[in-house]
Amino acid sequence: MKFITFEKQDGTIRAGWLLNQDFAVDMFEASDGLLPDNLLNFLENSEANLKKIASFSFTKEHKGVYPLSKLRLKAPLPIPKSFRDFYAFEQHVKTARENRGLEMIPEWYEIPVFYFSNHLAIKGSGEGIIKPSECNWLDYELEIACIIGKEGRNIPADQADEYIFGYSILNDWSARDLQRKEMKVGLGPAKGKDFATSIGPWIVTKDELEPFKLGKGYDLSMKARVNGNLLSVGNMKDLYYSFAEMIERASHGVTLYPGEIIGSGTVGSGCILELGSQVHRWLRPGDQVELEIEHLGVLQNEIIAEER
């Protein structure tokens, strides 16, 4: 299933799922209130709610079913409980460090590492991304995210799949010049990542991806385009650390809750920093950025200037 959050023509924000790709089910209206009106509440009892959905039978004529063309998609999980972003693709880490004149650090191979980003600055497909006024090196990052669907603590990797609700495309926008300066102080990225993260256009439940399981990930091609020009090509199967290993690390001594987002980090070649300015300049207002992951859809955003 593909879960979405959307705005109706009357301005109401609701959540639901796609029906035959061209229609959306408002799960609250269609279920006569048996299901919640937002995805965060749905995830807090996801197993029981999925069973309720399985007991329903919907057609496009059913109450609460709307043509997708009449709705405006939002981020599928507009305000997640948290957002941890890992650093799990080896090629990206190596190349990005080489471009800065740095060698690979052995500690990276010992533990999967992550940072916390701003879970209140989540954007959806089609929303504008405001370029920070002081940023001159704006970059995209081609990533995949998993959404936690069950509470757990000290989760072993061999059980972690039980805690994943689904997956979505993620764009971890980066102000590289701000990031470069602040990381010299010895802390992780802060203002360089603070302004926006995009997810969407929907969350695909993990069962839909099972046929593509390969290695530590899934055999899913990953692409990025700027103004229609293909820049980045990768594959999720190239993960060095699996999402199960990331969840094991994230939950060590900490409780994970439904509605938290975990990002993979950038796939190899998945950003301008890694590709180099000879391949493409930094992003600027008016640029259209599209991230595409096989079976997960296309996440599209336009860069816009900050109003003064």
What would you say this structure looks like, in words?
The protein is an alpha+beta fold and 308 residues long. The chain folds into two domains: 2-73, no CATH class; 82-305, Fumarylacetoacetate hydrolase, domain 2 (Alpha-Beta Complex), CATH 3.90.850. Helices cover 16% and strands 34% of the residues. It contains seven helices and 23 strands. The chain has helices at 27-30, 39-43, 46-55, 90-98, 176-183, 243-250, 272-275, and strands spanning 2-7, 13-19, 23-26, 65-67, 72-73, 82-86, 114-116, 122-123, 128-131, 138-139, 142-148, 152-153, 164-171, 174-175, 197-205, 213-214, 217-218, 221-226, 229-235, 255-256, 260-263, 288-293, 297-305. Strands 1, 2, 3, 4, 5, 6, 7, 8, 11, 13, 15 and 21 form a twelve-stranded mixed β-sheet that branches. A five-stranded mixed β-sheet has the order 9-23-22-18-19, with no helix packed on it. A two-stranded antiparallel ribbon has the order 10-14. A hairpin with a 3-residue loop joins strand 2 (13-19) and strand 3 (23-26). The longest helix has 10 residues, at 46-55. The chain is globular. The mean pLDDT is 95.
Write the layout of secondary structure elements.
Elements: E1 2-7, E2 13-19, E3 23-26, H1 27-30, H2 39-43, H3 46-55, E4 65-67, E5 72-73, E6 82-86, H4 90-98, E7 114-116, E8 122-123, E9 128-131, E10 138-139, E11 142-148, E12 152-153, E13 164-171, E14 174-175, H5 176-183, E15 197-205, E16 213-214, E17 217-218, E18 221-226, E19 229-235, H6 243-250, E20 255-256, E21 260-263, H7 272-275, E22 288-293, E23 297-305
Parallel strand pairs: 6-21, 8-15, 9-23
Antiparallel strand pairs: 1-2, 1-5, 1-15, 2-3, 3-4, 6-7, 10-14, 11-13, 11-21, 12-20, 13-15, 16-17, 18-19, 18-22, 22-23
